[in-house]
Design goal:
Elements: H1 2-48
Amino acid sequence: MSSRVHAMTGNNGNRANWMKRIGVAGFLFFLVKGLVWLAILAGAGTLWAC
């Protein structure tokens, strides 16, 4: 039974690392996406103000 518990805790650690990586990747994706949208809106605003 202890080997089974050890395997499960080791698996949870690996799963937690993957969740952290996905979280960081998701954060960076939406950060870049938001910055691109702000740049597009700023560019459209300068074209509209001509």
